[in-house]
Amino acid sequence: MARNVGPQCRLCRREGIKLFLKGVRCDTAKCPIERQGHNNPPGMHGWRRSRGTSYGIRLREKQKVKRYYGVLEKQFRIYFARASKQKQNTGAALLSFLERRLDNAVFRSGFTVSRRASRQLVNHGHIYVNDHKVDVASYLVKPGDFITVKDSEKSLKQVREQVDANKGRQLPGWLSLDEKTPKVTILAMPTRDDVQIPVEEHLIVELCSM
């Protein structure tokens, strides 16, 4: 399976915002975005900021969303093709598909510290959907589904520790968490308002429609 194994902080620096790719580290003083002199784009010419071309601005929006959700170009194109066939706004439909990814739902539920950790948890067979093991991170959840953890001491301990650490954190409205089990129920389809990073999705639609 193809994946990005390079330095994660470089991706945040390139986009100029926190993408929260390294979990709790992103909320500490070690985050390059917070450190003076380290929040420029990577590379020897990173300090040269320009207004950017029309194409470049649209490309940066697409790259930001891809990196935030941890998807590659081919996967992203598939999501866009599906979103363009929906009756609703294409940009909103695209973001909804990305939010519905199983690895994202696991992360937003507070089971892990990052989407990357959620992807690993899913791929290693620790996550069940509707009592069936699902080891595909791109699986799309839907209203009525429920997510549980493999009934093993190792799996449950790992998730419960993180759920306890995340107590008090507000969940998105489309998810409901039972901390005792732990179990997550999908209440509704995620909407545009559930996306946590600032993104101008219409620019992505314009770019992918060229």
Commentary on this structure:
The chain has 210 residues and is α+β, with helices and mostly antiparallel strands. The protein has a domain at 99-186: RNA-binding S4 domain (Structural Genomics Hypothetical 15.5 Kd Protein In mrcA-pckA Intergenic Region, Chain A). 39% of the residues lie in helices and 8% in strands. A hairpin with a 4-residue loop joins strand 4 (175-178) and strand 5. Helix 3 (73-83) crosses helix 4 and helix 5 (102-108) crosses helix 6.
In DSSP terms, counting alpha (H) and pi (I) runs of 4 or more, how many helices?
8
Shape: elongated
Specify the helix fraction band: 25-40%
Q: How do the helices and strands follow one another from N- to C-terminus?
A: HHHHHHEEEHEEH
**Head-to-tail CA distance between termini:** 28 Å
Radius of gyration: 18 Å
Instruction: Supply the CATH superfamily name of one domain.
Output: RNA-binding S4 domain
Q: How many β-strands, per DSSP?
A: 5
What does the average pLDDT come to? 83
User: What is the CATH fold-level name of one domain?
Assistant: Structural Genomics Hypothetical 15.5 Kd Protein In mrcA-pckA Intergenic Region, Chain A
Widest beta sheet: strand line-up? 2-1-3-5-4
What structural class results from the helix and strand content? Answer: alpha+beta
Assigned CATH architecture of one domain: Roll
Largest sheet: 5 strands, antiparallel
CATH class of one domain: Alpha Beta
Low-confidence stretches: none
| Binned strand content | 5-15%
Outline of this structure?
This protein has 210 residues and is of the alpha+beta class.
